[in-house]
């Protein structure tokens, strides 16, 4: 009897322990995914992919980015730090470094080296420019570094920033077709990564080519193929089927990124990581971040209404279904917590809007820069513009001083000039941004994205509908809903099904995860929690 009681007590403590924390948290980011896609393509989705997360999990219908620029690196950093570029310091994918006078990349780190079968320049990367901690960092601290944290993506920034400063590993895809990392994480790739790379899995996908997954008539939610709003994929006419072998032969294995199979190879790699790194096997919570990038590459080139993009989502839906089934089997239903969101959404193709009578256009950032320089030369006889990038104007303050000009007056004159441009909605000066009181809708987005050490002296907000991009395909970066409205789905461990239509901000994800795991919040977050998934009711 005594033995039975002890056995029951032990069993009970195992069960209650098992429910105390999830064994594995999986953070899925779908690059450039608009909330709308969950609905636009839903009649062609499986029951056990995106729909499983939506029907059995919690759907935040109205989640937005709360800063500009809405780009990939700030997006990934903001999801996982629970704060915005003004605090975490990732103010763009790349930006003008005022100290060096040169452009820098978000995850540049000259002090580390590439490891694996990649190209050296692809591997000089680390999270050192990320100024605040991530939810994954806090998990490492709270478990005395025993919980494993691994980040992965086709993009270096999509792997490195979510995994944080204390990650065991971040892996990203090289144009050689291999997953690589840097000496920031270790001296040598784990053997299972070397084995995975040796299998040359990319060849399997390239040799298969890219045909539509379903009969052509299935794609009636998109425009017809080979429409004028699509750009060219590696010089190919934007038309199915794509000969990937040919694209590969003329380029490198990097072409896989701009096909749906970039997502497939990443999912293959993620499942291998779970198996070989034993993620979710013990009682200490592990955290895997997986950022699917092919949706962004294809969205940029072919646009949001191309059948290529729809096909990519239908295939990603299958991949998500397969991945969830894998988690059920290997980590166990109820033992893992999944969340899915995006690093930003994306605009409509501007030419398509214009042809349908909405008077908007695309502007090239180089044209804006050249026009600013030309204005400077005619007005002051000198080029006072150091750089224009990410909607920021950087002035040559030294030269302004030498010329005996007043910076505030120069800014004023540039502002007046900019307001004469058809594409400009607002121009804000550094002083206005730093002294903002919070009542100006556009200004709040700029404030949250602005770091005075790293940003320029003027920030431009384009008019809604205008994009800094080519006439084909699409982009993102603005504070408007088409760029800010992203999916936010929670599923699995302790998540009840439901939905909320209240407006949420992306920075709420990380502190809510901290609350679910009962650990310290990332250090830069203002911690407005998503009450809906925390309340026990
Ligand atoms: Zn992105
Ligand atoms: Zn096409
Ligand atoms: Zn993008």
Radius of gyration: 24 Å
Low-confidence stretches: 9-18
Structural class: alpha/beta
Assess the beta-strand content as a share of residues. 15-25%
Question: How would you describe this structure in keywords?
Answer:
single chain, 537 residues, alpha/beta, 11-stranded mixed β-sheet, 4-stranded antiparallel β-sheet, 37% helix, binds zinc ion
Can you describe what's shown?
The longest helix has 24 residues, at 307-330. The radius of gyration is 24 Å and the shape is globular. β3 and β4 form a beta hairpin. With 537 residues, it is α/β, with parallel strands linked by helices. Strands 1, 2, 5, 6, 7, 8, 9, 10, 17, 18 and 19 form an eleven-stranded mixed β-sheet that branches. The protein has a four-stranded antiparallel β-sheet with strand order 12-13-15-14, sandwiched between helices. Strands 3-4 form a two-stranded antiparallel sheet. The chain is built from 21 helices and 19 strands. The chain is 37% helix and 16% strand. The structure holds zinc ion (ZN) (3 copies). One zinc ion is lined by residues 225-226, 230, 238-239, 302, 306-308.
Quick recap of the structure?
The chain has 537 residues and is an alpha/beta fold.
Topology:
Layout: H1 2-20, E1 24-30, H2 36-40, H3 50-56, E2 58-64, H4 72-81, H5 85-88, E3 94-97, E4 102-105, E5 114-115, H6 135-142, E6 149-153, H7 156-163, E7 169-173, E8 179-182, H8 191-198, H9 201-208, H10 244-250, H11 261-276, E9 286-292, H12 294-302, H13 307-330, E10 336-341, H14 350-355, E11 362-363, H15 365-380, E12 385-389, E13 392-395, H16 397-402, H17 407-419, E14 424-429, H18 430-434, H19 441-448, E15 458-462, E16 467-468, H20 481-484, E17 485-492, E18 498-500, E19 504-505, H21 509-517
Parallel strand pairs: 1-9, 1-10, 2-18, 2-19, 6-7, 6-9, 11-16
Antiparallel strand pairs: 2-17, 3-4, 5-8, 7-8, 10-17, 12-13, 13-15, 14-15
Bound molecules: zinc ion (3 copies).
């Amino acid at each position: 009897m005594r033995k039975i009681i002890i056995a029951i007590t032990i069993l009970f403590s195992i069960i209650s322990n098992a429910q105390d924390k999830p064994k594995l948290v999986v953070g899925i980011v779908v690059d450039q995914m608009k909330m709308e896609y969950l609905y636009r393509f839903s009649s062609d989705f499986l029951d056990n992919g995106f729909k499983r997360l939506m029907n059995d999990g919690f759907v935040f219908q109205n989640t937005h980015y709360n800063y500009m620029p809405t780009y990939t690196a700030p997006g990934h950093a903001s999801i996982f730090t629970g704060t915005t570029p003004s605090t975490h310091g990732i103010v763009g994918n790349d930006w003008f470094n005022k100290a060096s006078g040169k452009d820098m990349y978000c995850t540049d780190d000259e002090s580390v080296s590439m490891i694996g079968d990649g190209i050296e320049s692809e591997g000089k990367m680390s999270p050192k420019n990320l100024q605040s901690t991530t939810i994954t960092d806090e998990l490492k601290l709270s478990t005395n570094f025993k919980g494993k944290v691994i980040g992965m993506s086709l993009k270096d920034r999509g792997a490195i920033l979510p995994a944080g400063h204390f990650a065991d590993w971040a892996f990203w895809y090289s144009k050689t077709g291999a997953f690589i990392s840097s000496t920031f994480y270790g001296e040598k790739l784990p053997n299972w990564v070397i084995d995975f790379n040796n299998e040359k899995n990319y060849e399997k996908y390239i040799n298969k080519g890219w045909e539509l997954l379903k009969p052509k008539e299935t794609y009636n939610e998109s425009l017809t193929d080979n429409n004028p709003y699509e750009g060219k994929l590696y010089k190919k006419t934007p038309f199915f089927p794509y000969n990937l072998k040919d694209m590969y032969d003329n380029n490198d294995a990097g072409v896989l990124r701009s096909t749906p199979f970039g997502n497939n190879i990443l999912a293959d790699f993620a499942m291998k990581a779970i198996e070989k790194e034993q993620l979710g096997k013990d009682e200490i919570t592990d955290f895997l971040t997986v950022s699917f990038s092919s949706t962004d590459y294809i969205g940029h080139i072919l646009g949001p209404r191309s059948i290529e993009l729809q096909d990519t989502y239908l295939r990603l839906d299958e991949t998500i279904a397969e991945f969830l089934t894998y988690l059920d089997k290997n980590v166990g239903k109820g033992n893992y917590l999944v969340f899915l969101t995006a690093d930003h959404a994306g605009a409509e193709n501007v030419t398509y809007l214009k042809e349908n009578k909405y008077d908007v256009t695309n502007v090239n950032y180089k044209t804006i820069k050249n026009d600013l320089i030309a204005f400077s030369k005619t007005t002051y006889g000198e080029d006072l513009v150091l750089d224009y990038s990410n909607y920021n104007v950087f002035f040559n303050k030294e030269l302004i001083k030498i010329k005996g000009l007043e910076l505030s007056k120069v800014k004023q004159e540039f502002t007046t000039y900019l307001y004469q441009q058809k594409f400009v909605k607002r121009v804000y000066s550094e002083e206005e941004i730093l002294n903002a009181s919070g009542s100006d809708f556009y200004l709040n987005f700029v404030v949250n994205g602005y770091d005075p050490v790293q940003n320029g002296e003027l920030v431009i907000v384009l008019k809604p509908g205008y994009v800094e991009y080519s006439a084909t395909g699409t982009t993102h970066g603005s504070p408007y809903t088409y760029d800010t409205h992203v999916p936010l789905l929670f599923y699995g461990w302790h998540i009840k099904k439901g939905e909320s239509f209240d407006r949420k901000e992306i920075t709420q994800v990380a502190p809510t995860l901290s609350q679910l795991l009962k650990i310290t919040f990332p250090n830069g977050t203002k911690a407005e929690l998503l009450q809906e998934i925390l309340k026990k009711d």
